[in-house]
Specification:
Elements lengths: L3 H17 L25 H16 L6 H13 L4 E4 L3 H7 L8 H25 L8 H26 L14 H8 L6 H16 L16 H14 L5 H11 L23 E5 L26 E4 L1 H10 L2 H7 E4 L14 E4 L12 E5 H14 L3 H14 L10 H16 L5 H7 L3 H6 L24 H6 L10
Length: 490
């Protein structure tokens, strides 16, 4: 349900920046302190309000701006940047992220900033208009639910931004289009501190928690539910420094009873178990030719023999699966192909690894799990372990391991359990965009990456430094907005 009206709403605000930046998808921000002038003299209809929230979902799934931010680049940022994947292919921007030579001109970094703010702009416009709707056909509960759903997607976009860039501008209202001066003033604003960004995220999620639908109220796991909001709150509290493990535990405990793991790990990826019992938040794709929507073309970037693919699994990850005896997750996650490819990392052209979780590059029907139950189970295990409750932490780790026929964990100390949970998250959630952010939030990114070796045991020489835990601010944005300042070190 692509909403053309929705994109017209933000076109005036973005036109100035688009002109200055050529064809790039730049959609800048307004400060949280700026007042906005909205035409509320005529209320939108209830039907239009429904179209507006549908438009936010359309944007979040990536139909308007491609699927890079929430699918392709989620894997690049979470797995290629970590020890799970090499860049693969020959794209210089991907390779720069892989080998930690990213600079402000990196195209991936620039498009992620722009795409995240495009989601935020669409959400802001929907929130403002739905909030002002007085059509009696729009029930108060449904109105509150739509506002909560839009705020959750806005919060999720900011969660991505703050983890990727650190300091970013906060935009919680549409641009002020009163005149050209107010428009320019409302889109050229400085960054806020990470703490301020996290507060904005929490405010949105707290507001949404009491208004969105119950778990199971919708057949599609794309639709934001209380499970999605509580899972995001758990993840935010685990990531915001310092981690608040009491809050992580509280929100995990609100999520876990409402979901159950599939008995067969491979069913998660067979395209016959979409919106399943362990899926908490899922980007759903119906394939090509489904109305005016496109399919998920991202699997074509990982599978197929036409050209050397992106996001090649690392030797270290393959070895980690094998050392654990984790054959089920290894072969559900990675396929070894004979396409004649080889490189510095994988020299046997008869056994070249490619991502296998996204296994339908032709039909466009692969869904993408943003959050699954094992993610939250293992976060809850971390919360137990943070309180030195190793027994309860082990119970949850073993639950995840049992599904893939692995023995119980042998971790017997708090430090050993932390590493056991880290490993379990890696093997369970590989290629779902989590690994890098797990390493950063636990303070392990530099040590793990700087110890990374190739298939022959030679150190890869990443030399990750503290400032490289976040990306540089894109140069395109620095050029457009003189109030932005570059992240230290770049």
């Amino acid at each position: 349900m692509k909403n053309n009206r929705f994109f017209k709403i933000v076109s005036a605000a973005s036109a100035l920046l688009l002109i200055m930046s050529g064809c790039s998808k730049v959609l800048n921000k307004t400060p949280d302190t700026n007042l906005v002038t909205l035409d509320t003299t005529s209320s939108i209809s209830a039907a239009t309000a429904e179209n507006l929230i549908a438009g936010v979902y359309t944007e979040y799934k990536g139909y308007a701006n491609g699927l890079e931010l929430n699918v392709l680049d989620r894997i690049t940022n979470g797995d290629v940047r970590s020890d799970n994947c090499y860049a693969g292919g020959d794209n210089a921007d991907n390779i720069g992220i892989d080998v930690f030579s990213t600079n402000p001109l990196n195209g991936n970094v620039s498009r992620d900033w722009s795409d995240a703010y495009a989601i935020i702009a669409i959400a802001n416009s929907a929130i403002a208009q739905i909030n002002s709707c007085t059509d009696p056909a729009l029930a108060a509960a449904r109105k509150a639910q739509m506002l909560g759903e839009a705020k959750t997607m806005r919060a999720a976009a900011y969660f991505d931004l703050v983890r990727l860039f650190g300091r970013v501008p906060i935009m919680l209202i549409p641009p002020d289009q009163t005149n050209s001066e107010t428009l320019i003033a409302s889109v050229l604003v400085p960054q806020s501190s990470p703490d301020s960004v996290y507060l904005a995220i929490l405010n949105d999620l707290w507001a949404a928690a009491g208004t969105v639908g119950d778990v199971g109220a919708n057949a599609s796991k794309l639709i934001v539910s209380k499970g999605v909001v509580n899972a995001l709150l758990a993840k935010v509290y685990a990531t915001k420094s310092p981690a608040n493990w009491d809050s992580v535990a509280y929100y995990c405990d609100k999520v876990i009873p409402n979901y159950t793991m599939l008995t067969d790990f491979t069913q998660l990826w067979d395209n016959n178990h979409k919106n399943n019992s362990e899926s908490i938040w899922e980007l759903t794709y119906d394939g090509y030719g489904a109305g005016d929507q496109v399919g998920n073309w991202i699997p074509s970037q990982f599978l197929g023999s036409g050209w050397k693919k992106f996001s090649t699994p690392t030797n270290d990850l393959v070895n980690a699966y094998r050392a654990e005896g984790d054959s089920i997750r290894l072969h559900a996650s990675i396929q070894f192909v004979n396409y004649g490819w080889s490189d510095l990392y994988w020299t046997d052209p008869n056994n070249y690894p490619v991502l296998a979780k996204y296994n339908d590059p032709n039909s466009g029907i692969n869904d993408f799990y943003l959050i699954r139950l094992p993610d939250i189970l293992l976060l809850r295990a971390e919360a137990y372990n943070a309180k030195n409750d190793i027994v309860d932490a082990a119970t949850l780790v073993d639950m995840v391991r049992a599904r893939v026929s692995l023995p119980q964990t042998t971790a017997a100390s708090q430090s050993d359990m932390a590493l056991a949970i880290e490993k379990e998250r890696r093997l369970e959630l590989a290629f779902e965009g989590h690994r890098w952010f797990d390493l950063v939030r636990t303070g392990r990114a530099e040590a793990v990456m700087n110890a990374e070796t190739n298939g022959n045991g030679a150190n890869l020489g990443y030399n990750v430094r503290d400032f490289e835990l976040v990306y540089p601010i894109p140069q395109t944005q620095m050029d457009l907005n003189p109030k932005l300042t570059q992240n230290s070190g770049y």
